[in-house]
Amino acid sequence: MTASNHHQPHLSSDDPRIMLDGEIGQFESVPPYPPRTEREAEFYSLRDGEMFLNMGPQHPSTHGVLRVVLKINGERVVDLDPVLGYLHRGVEKLCENSDYHHIISQVDPLEYVSSLFTEWAPVMAFEKLLDVTVPRRAEYIRVLTGELLRVSSHALYQGWMALDLGGLAPILYSFIERDEIVEMLAAITGQRMLFNYFRIGGVNGDLNHEFMSRLGDWMSRALKEHETNIGLLNENEIFVRRMRGIGRVDRDMALKMAVTGPNIRAAGVPFDVRRAHPYSVYPELDFNIPVRGSNGGGDSLDRYLLRLDEVRESLKIIDQCLHNMPDGPIMARLPRLLRPRPGRAWAAVEAPRGLYGTYAISDGTDQPFRMKIHDPSFVNMQLVGQLMKNNLIADTMAVMASLDPVMGGIDK
Amino acid sequence: MTTIPGMGLVRGMGLTLTRFFQPKATIKWPEEQADVAPKFRGRLQLLYDEYGTLKCETCFQCAQACPIECIDMGGVDTRGRFHVHWGPPETYGERREESAVRRSGRPVADTAFTHFEGIDLLALDVILDAHDHDPREMLAILEETQAAYGYLPVAALKHISRTTGAWYAQIYGTASYYRHLRFEPPAAAGVPEAGQAQIAAEAAFTTRLDAALGIGGQVR
Amino acid sequence: MTTVSRSWGNMTTTGKVVVPLLLLVLVLGPIATVAIGSWIGPWIVGLASANLPIVRFLVAVTGVLLFSIPTAFIIIYMELKVIAFMNLRVGPDRVGPAGAAHSVVAGLKVLSKEDFSPNAADRTVFTWAPVLVFLTSVMTFLILPFGPDLVGMKLNIGVLYLFSIGGMTVVGLLLAGWSSFNKYSLLGGLRAAAQVVSYEIPLTLSVVGLILLAGTMNVYTLGLQQSGWFTNWYVFRQPLGALIFFIASIAEANRTPFDLTEADSEIVAGFATEYSGMRFGFLFFAEYVNVFLVSALITTFFFGAWNAPVDINAILGFFNIAPITISFELGTLGIALLIAIAVLPLILTLALAAPFYFGKTQRPAWQALVIGFILFNLVGIGILGLIAYVNVPWIAGITWFFLKAFAFVFVFVWMRGTFPRVRIDQLMGFAWKWLLPAALLNLFVTAAAIIVVKSL
């Protein structure tokens, strides 16, 4: 790939930083590099009346730093090209150079909204490599905190879904809800956001009085408050008309694009990792898997309402965990320096956005040889290109928001 | 959905109106402070035990264990011989050298605490007096210091820091931002400037390089 | 004073300019005052009294411009605080008491920003587009009746004037969007143009029914016709027209849910993306003045302009009580007046300060006295205001006008805090498929009703 076939506007001086008055305004209609793939060639060729609109990495509502190049014809989006990588931190490489214990804090910022799940999958993979049995109390605590975080993540989703559509109130209500949950989690984990709580073989700290009192206080009013906040939007005609019929995902498309999580359950496919590949203590717990859009697929409104159903299920699970919490140690006995036998392990959990998986390869040393992270948002974002054909610009944001992406996971 | 079109909107407005009168969730810092759980590890403070001594023993375990290498610490060794420093290299002037020995955690004679040459501070005092020891006129002070000494010696910067109250790091940062301020004495006479001969030599080299590599013309 | 107390050598350049200027002013001040008082002043007054209409015009124009800025400040503050309260947070509360000076400081900040325009933007148009937008808002104040006899001009074709001015807003927005040389601004400007133009038509048509009923386009006369009881208000005779006017005016003012021209989650600030500093200040203020304006129009057309909802004198007349007047001759009090002036403030201050000093909170003495004094001032203003309200008709008019207008401003702000925004095709569909037929229906029904009633 040579860089010398640049097709630049003619500049009177050789210094590319100098642009003379006469040349101001002569901008390229296509990017100046030769297209490297067919898709690029198709995307970067403009027909009559079309123009590129760059919703750049700095934008009030692309959930983080995501760059989306839209090809628009008036207000209608003809094509869409997301450009990722603005938040790439090289986490997988960092994990290759970290001890097994350090990895837990390295992978936290991947899905920073629900970071316990990003710790859970690697920890489960390492436990498989090390043949560690996690004590039952630790498993129950993991499920309890995980489901709490799921509720918090879905509450936040409702908020920024509304924010992307223009409503200013729901996001603040969501943050008030989330703040309560996050303070609760800070009481046991020690942090409000990037928890660094799970350990290989258990969890870091036991439930304490502060956590239990806050949890008890919250549980008594959680569902009602959540439903009141959602009620602001559920019945709002403007909101419903913005979301109904937009971004319709049917069963075939969802399965073809390997979408997971609430997005596929809103398309009619009842796939949930907690039931399909059970892990931890989920087989002992009694909960349903909400599904919407069973006939013909689901649109944004179905995805939105599904997450409300999931919050109810999560609250049921939390209740059961509290009632059935066994006594015992919270961490298995492990040496400080971990050297698992060479091998490979895969573990997946049901994160609020979908299937979050880790594939760990160990070579016998105290650092993993490779840690591949399968992030649900990365896969879900591929839907946007399919769903956006011939919709309006305003719907781009609505569709992206309804898929609930978190850029930390997409860019790793 | 509601039966009467528009009732959803009205009900939404009703909810916000009730929220208008509810107590607010804001914690008005600094008058009120949030209740922080005892286990919260986000507080940046060293802890004391019940006798009043600092609990931290500078054992470097936390800095060594930190996966993102954000802990930097230093202390004097137990016999008071030298200063031990552990941590990622900082951007301040005294500690800019990248040293594998330092990163290993073994004791290193720290150049930060090496003795730097003293200078005659009289000229510097005159300059500082003229500016009323005002740290807001730092750039002017630094320019005049460079005019007086030929460069900005470490001793001068430390003296300025002591008398104006600005941190050494701030002064260093200000000085390093400007191109006309330098930290080393100017080259002694006799070293030729990068003149035409050097430019021509560079151009000749790049031409030969391009020819050898088989690419013609400027590559951007 | 620190500037002055430093010696000359240590003074900053600003100080070196300001201090001599101050001295100059101190010296020349008395001389200038004497000169103005004895020679220049009377000459100006003579000139003015000879050209009274021009003076009146200048005063009116200055008044209007000076009025619009504080109104914008108040509405900005209201918006920030009201939306914050609805979001269960506090809003600005540091600058000034309860954050009241926040919008003033924001205005000053906007003034102090760097003045630049994008490289490729059309500089002249870029500069003058916000002026055009602001101008159209301000020109509408000419015919707005603030009270009985408190109107800039009793224009016979007032309503027609209003809507022709409204059409000019489109030009301003389009110019702003186009001249920025930015695709986001372009989209925002085009959306704004489409929105404003589409909603002009139902706006105008909804008022035509009102004009048919009232028989006049004179906005002042419309206000006069709604005097008396609140059942005289046109909202009861034209409910559909009022609703259509309300919805269309939300779109005209570019407010949520129709604020896609500045949708900041899609096209960052729309047509105002490239604007900063005072140019943005113009656009920003123009929007808030617009909000006040459409609220004022709604109250003028449909909710009784400056008239109180109940006519107290009519009620009292029903019970054969004389109308309320407060009048007394201060002179009859004689020496008691002097004693009252000397003693009453003191007594009242102490009386009002007492609960704060002896009560539960136990404030220090000076704090209690200050609070007492402030309360006494408020009580005094309240009493004087009451007297003014009863005796002087236009004060009552202004009070009610502002109460009603700000009630509608509150409703606008309330809607902003609650609703998401509609999409452009839904917006246009709503205007052309629902509002326009509804306005036409309103018009036909009104006309038919008039004919039927007249023929009876």
Morphology call of chain C: globular
Helix content of chain A: 40-55%
The overall pLDDT average of chain C reads 82
Number of helices of chain C: 15
* Number of DSSP-assigned strands of chain A: 9
Strand order of the largest sheet of chain A: 1-2-3-9
- For this structure, what is the CATH class of the largest domain in chain A? Mainly Alpha
| Chain pair with largest interface | A-C, 34 and 33 residues
Beta-strand percentage of chain A?
A: 5-15%
Instruction: Provide the CATH architecture of the largest domain in chain A.
Output: Orthogonal Bundle
Number of helices of chain A: 17
Beta fraction of chain C: under 5%
Report the count of strand segments of chain C. 0
Indicate the multimeric state.
heterotrimer
C-alpha-based Rg of chain A, rounded: 23 Å
Protein model, in words:
- The complex is a heterotrimer of chains A (412), B (220) and C (456).
- In chain A, the strands form 3 sheets. In chain A, strands 1-2-3-9 form a 4-stranded antiparallel sheet.
- Chain A is built from 17 helices and 9 strands.
- Chain A is globular, with a radius of gyration of 23 Å.
- With 412 residues, chain A is of the alpha+beta class.
- In chain A, α3 runs antiparallel to α4, α5 packs antiparallel against α16 and α6 (169-189) runs antiparallel to α8.
- In chain B, α4 runs antiparallel to α5.
- In chain B, β1 and β2 form a beta hairpin.
- Helices cover 38% and strands 4% of the residues of chain B.
- Mean pLDDT of chain B is 76; it is low at 90-98.
- Chain B has a two-stranded antiparallel ribbon with strand order 1-2.
- Chain B is extended, with a radius of gyration of 30 Å.
- With 220 residues, chain B is mostly helical.
- Chain C is an all-alpha fold and 456 residues long.
- Chain C has a domain at 54-82 and 102-316 and 394-455.
- Chain C has helices spanning 2-5, 13-50, 52-86, 102-111, 123-139, 158-179, 183-214, 219-225, 239-252, 277-302, 312-318, 335-358, 365-391, 393-418, 424-455.
- In chain C, α7 runs parallel beside α15 (424-455).
- The longest helix of chain C is centred in the first third of the chain and has 38 residues, at 13-50.
- Chain C is globular and about 70 Å long.
- Chains in contact: A-B, A-C, B-C.
Summary keywords:
heterotrimer, B: 220 residues, mainly alpha, Arc Repressor Mutant, subunit A, 2 strands, C: 456 residues, globular
